[in-house]
Amino acid sequence: MSYLYLMLDLTHRGLILPLLCFGWLSSCNDVAQTAAEKSTQERVEIYAQTPFNFPTLSLEAQDLITDWPVFKDFKRISQNLVTIPIEDLKHRSNNLRLRIDSLTTTLPESLNSPIIASRLLVVSTRINLLNQETKKSTPDSVVVEEKLLELHQSIREFVLHINEKVEKDRLDNQGVNKDRKTS
């Protein structure tokens, strides 16, 4: 009963309507603020929007790679650098950094050449630059995308030179075998 008297008293004084409006505006503001924060988080968290298709290895190069398991890990991780949150990108770029170090130390003898070594160095540099950018407190999405594109290009060139090296070795072996037959 006292509640009814209070409501009537507030109504007569003209306070009920402003209180209801204030409560309604406050709840609308909270909903809008929550939606804006969620939208900002979603925009900031997702990186690596540019798709990447790992370059194709020639059949001869694929045969060579079967004995180089670190390359398979490198390929798998580099293919998975797409549409991921920054924390995953930090983790994967760090894993990729470790794999490139292993690639360098386990390079098959048949691929051990200055051009392959230089391509590995470029890939390593690009991975390190990406890794540095992802570790910043607020990574710039444009810079991250740029570093990823540079990494993708360096990987393409690395695989291109693997294919070329394998093809050159094959042609050299054919030439040596021809010379032996004619002698």
Describe it.
The chain is mainly α and 183 residues long. It folds into two domains: 2-43; 48-182, Four Helix Bundle (Hemerythrin (Met), subunit A) (Up-down Bundle), CATH 1.20.120. It has helices spanning 2-13, 16-45, 59-65, 69-79, 86-105, 114-134, 141-182; strands at 46-47, 84-85. It has a two-stranded antiparallel sheet with strand order 1-2. Helix 4 packs antiparallel against helix 5 and helix 5 runs antiparallel to helix 6 (114-134). The chain is elongated. The termini are far apart.
Q: How would you sum up this structure in a few lines?
A:
The chain is mainly alpha-helical and 183 residues long. The chain has helices at residues 2-13, 16-45, 59-65, 69-79, 86-105, 114-134, 141-182, and strands at 46-47, 84-85.
What structural keywords apply?
single chain; 183 residues; mainly alpha; Four Helix Bundle (Hemerythrin (Met), subunit A); 2 domains; two-stranded antiparallel ribbon; 7 helices; 78% helix; elongated
Number of domains: 2
The unreliable regions are 39-44
N- to C-terminal separation?
A: 119 Å
Shape: elongated
Largest sheet entry = 2 strands, antiparallel
CATH architecture of the largest domain: Up-down Bundle
CATH topology of the largest domain: Four Helix Bundle (Hemerythrin (Met), subunit A)
Give me the strand/helix succession: HHEHHEHHH
| Residue share in β-strands | under 5%
β-strand number: 2
Radius of gyration: 30 Å
